[in-house]
Fold these 2 entries.
Entry 1:
Amino acid sequence: MSSQITNPTFVALTIFMLAAFTGWVIIGRVPAILHTPLMSGSDFVHGIVVVGGLFALLNATTAIEQAFGFLAVLFGAGNAAGGYAVTERMLAMFQPSGHPARHARRSGPRPVHARKGR
Amino acid sequence: MIPQLIIGVTDLAAAFLFLYGLKRMSSPVTAPSGIFVAGVGMLVAILASFLYVFGVSAAARPHLGINVGLALIALVLGGGAAWWSGKKAAMTSMPQMVALYNGMGGGAAAAIAAVELFGDKTRGATQLVVTLVGALIGAVSLSGSLIAWAKLEGILHKPLRVRGQQVVNGLVMLWTLALGGYLVFAAASGRAPLMSLPLAIGLFFGSALLFGVLMTLPIGGADMPVVISIYNACTGLAVGLEGFVLGTPALMIAGMVVGAAGLFLTLLMAKAMNRSVGNVLFTNFGGAKKHAQGDVKGSLKPVDAGDAGIFMRYAGSVIIVPGYGLAVAQAEQKLYELVKLLQAAGVSVRFAVHPVAGRMPGQMDVLLAEAGVPYDLIFQLDDINDDFKTCDVALVIGANDVVNPAARTDKSSPLYGMPILDADQAKKVYVVKRGEGKGYADIVNGLFYADNCNMVYGDARAVLVKMIEAVRSVESSTAA
């Protein structure tokens, strides 16, 4: 028997419940104008699966494990990088009145703060 | 010990940064920094995960060099290709890009499960069941998202509908579940270790992928956004479940947050389309019964684009209702040019955006922002709908069903109950349209026949160019 009061499965379920609730509340507050970037942004967030892929690949012992581990990292990295690229591009376009439109085609993952003084 | 501690701390930090980043996305002002914050979290988590090399099992140690090499290649290849495609994709193709990246995430979750299953790494029935459920959802999300992508990209044209499709889909699902059940039973009863059942594992993945394809094929292109949103939620769920199996809270939290967010967006979208989620997934919209169209009173009254432009020039307030037709004609820039001219002439101009304008919620907002329209001119349905009553002109461009008054009045209409923009209540309505055709829902729009409405026929871009010319000519003659 485990020395803990709560079964680890229930600890996990609690984490799931809290995370789901958090997601629901946070997303519910995002205005409709940002729903497309939000969808791509949440798409980006589940790109964290790449970390699980790395764990699986680094612990692989057979060729078949290596093959699927490689796929997991490949896809996971694609999910994360692609999700970030499109979200960042879209969000950079939203500007208030009096700001010149910034152009979407920029390179590099620099932060996109609103330009000041214009 | 130390590497494990660092991984724990960075995982926690990543989870926090994701949540904080998503929270910052709740306003256009802070949103760009929000995605940056989340991006930092992702980078930190990926870098830290290379510390796993210090904790690999004895069996995996001889392969470590190759595995690290493979990991780096996969990161560079997958990340690089997706980054490049994401940077060059047009704003109009955002829905399919999201579908594509989402499918990759689902595939990654399924592949992790495959490593666990083929390597027989799960401990206990709970872990095995969770792994299988995650694998199932991830695989369905992968193949389903790819079909959705192909449909939006125009590679697959017609929805494929065959009689008895639901039954076949149901059988494939049952077969997949039976295979999963067999795997759990075989492993739990100790009859056969998972290692000895590669065929059953392979079949399990194969039929899950097949189910995703069959499930998505019959759904029409107009409903794809809802489908993408559902698969987005599915991928989140699959990631969360695989995170549970691997014991990484960052995956569990990020996955579940996205799962809940995806569900929220799906329900929101379905509501804005006046459909239930089940209706989108299991009935064939458009192919359904034809209903009687009510008689429409009045007639279509075409008017010259230039005259409409000059009328707006002398109006006090104009509300523009843009639809996807505007994006198809690539006329967003021209529209904003007209708006700037009208503003210079003292006209108050605002945009009214319906939740499902575009191919996914909020896409119209992105397209307007791309054209340079400041977000404080863009209003959502609830915030602006009461103002149509007092505005002089409503200019409807490339939108149809979202301004159909039948949604308010005609109980027999399939649109009945759908929230619409009350453009018909403006003193004057101009509708820019290519021809006399109907909208997506194939329903007559009574607004076009109303006394206060004039039609401006033509390609949206050409019409806007004429309007701009007309307004400019007024300015130059008054200046002279």
Note: Residues 1 and 7 of chain A are 10 Å apart (CA to CA).
Entry 2:
Amino acid sequence: MNIYEITDLFRGILHTTGVFNFQWKLIIMWGVGSLFMYLAIAKKYEPLLLLPIGFGIFIVNFPLVPLMGYSDGHAQLIEVFYHYGLEWEIIPCIIFLGLGAMTDFGPLIANPKTLLIGAGAQLGVFITFTGTVLAGFTLKEAASVGIIGGADGPTTIYLTQHLAPQLLGPNAIAAYSYMAMVPLIQPGIMRLMTTKSEKRIRMRQLRPVSKREKILFPLVTVGIIALLVPSVIPLMGMFMLGNLMKESGVVERLTETAQGALMNIVTIFLGISVGATMHADSFLSWKPLFIFSLGLIDFGVCTAGGILTVKIMNLFLKEKINPLIGSAGVSAVPMASRVSQIQGLRYDKNNHLLMHAVGPNLAGVIGSAAAAGMFIAMFD
Amino acid sequence: MKNHTILMPALFLMLFPAVTIGEDFLGAPVVPHIRTIQKTETRLEILSDLTHDDALAFYREALREEEDIKFRDWKDATYIEDDGNREWHSVTISKEGKEGTEVVITKDSWTWIIGTLILRYVGVFVVLLLLFLGLKISGAFISRAIAKMDVKKDGS
């Protein structure tokens, strides 16, 4: 064996390592992944999702890693999670099953007029659509970017996967990031849009809701949604099944699994799959940056839309609603409700708005799903 | 077999010459037609002697490789819609023409985009409003049923 053969041997080995295939832009993505992991670990911002997403971004941005692609005709590890979980649109629906099994719709049933706040808070979704089209996105892409303002992660993922899968990574990350930043984004808008007297409006304690009403709620809701926006039934159907399981009280084992183990398993797969879609080659362009900046405006307009809806409703209502609960219409359960509670207490130490804000908060989940259904119906 | 491979494209060229000579309106292919009913900067209405199915086949072939195009089968027409960023928005091929098949091509316009967005936003309100009514009615029904049961219990 001469010196050339030995050199070739070493070169051959070196070419199978990542070092020889290194690109500088990968370092930027390591930074992005690390930032999300930092936000999750140090700041506790949506850690259940931002941690696996951050790790997914980090790990997929090394050269030659067999994670998101095919080798010898076989799908690689995260490609399998992505294909069966997201491309088949299964994970968002299973997450909705778990969310339904965890949700108490009592506050919404007790004060159903707060449903309208959930509709009003979708304002940003439709305004952002226009801005995104102006920026040169296709109509399908615009719809998937617009839904970020609804602040509902699974709905954003479901709609994006359906209409513009190429934007899945940036859209999902923008949605979850802004959901995590609700306490930073919303208070300023809430203060700006309400007067001192409005902030101090006290709302009557909610009536108790019977078990029968709670059992009937998922059936009535799923029936009406199925009739009006059938395209979103995979999401809403699972949401209401989870809730029916919880409220019926006869399938405790199933309810526990749906809200616990099953939810946790799919969250891991969701996080790492979404993160893994963000490879440097596709992420480092103007589109994701545009989505992040427009997503912030979108979220702000949705918050304003919810507050504005309450103000309009107050023109016609005898018993006024505190507009501080309007911001909770953007979904982001339960963070947005907590923000309403904290802001309410700042102006009146005995004014507890938490349970009142849960109503529009849950209405926001239904509202954003309805908006997603409208978009799916528009393009399917 | 060889003859077929030569004949088929030739037949297509004879049937649909517009594809080959590149006649278009705002970038949308225009089906061979006998009369132009109306032509403005934003709308073209023509009357074609092709049947609805032939006109549809023409557009399916002409737009075969284009992305973000949707063919919707309506009761009285086939509606071809562009979901991309093309200059034209839709091609409507009527199914009920007496003298021929009417084809309408429209320009992509902000009126359509804003109009559909407003309608869909209102749609979200309608969905939640109906849900509100559903809850009100079912709530009232249950309350009444519970009240009746309580009266019965008290009576017995």
Note: The first strand of chain A starts at residue 70 and ends at 71.
